[in-house]
Amino acid sequence: MSEEQPGSRASRYTVLPATAAASPVIHELEIKRSRFIGHLVRVQTEAGARAVIAGLRREHHEARHACSAFILGADRDVMRSSDDGEPAGTAGLPMLEALSLRETRPASDTLLGSESPGTVVRDLSDVCAVVVRYFGGIKLGAGGLVRAYSDAVSATLDRARLITRQRMVMTGVDAPHAEAGRWENELRTAGYPVHQTRYGSSAATLVVALPDDGRSGSAFGARIASITAGQADVRTLGTEWVDLP
Description:
27% of the residues lie in helices and 34% in strands. It is of the alpha+beta class. Strand 4 (65-72) and strand 5 form a beta hairpin.
């Protein structure tokens, strides 16, 4: 789970696992004796992305360049790149395109199915790519640099596990203490994992995360009415972004 992204149009997008915030995905290519070391890091803010870039520059202080690109937000409304001394347009922009054009899942896997059959989804976000270059003495030319930086990001992405980040409606089901355990078991059996159970003085609240897709709420309401014989008090607690397994 994480912070809200108010007003976002998207209800889901693709990210690196949370572990990639502290443990980057790294892959190295050697092209005409130059080393291109790709790093992919999960980030949530522009300040966080810039801190990652600065940290890798310090770590690889002997490298000629540490070029970068990052995308942020469910709607991918923040996209930045830097050539870090390479000829303009030969590093940062190709890296950004490798991130933004990455095909993450078929359209048939979307919740609302609004895309046309045969199309693909490109929704990778909350990611910072840094390619560190150790110059090998042979110039690659503009075209060679574009290919090298793009390939470095793409090859690193090929080694990354990607997951779905979903906006969820957190729904509270108030249950008598004596019924909470049974209701929770029946919800789990019906395919509604209980996110947590909060015990109060007079009742327990089962918190269930539902996809914010405009359809799941009514189906859940019918299921909980069946499980509880209409006794449950169901209320909306808010929305959160959740990484799906």
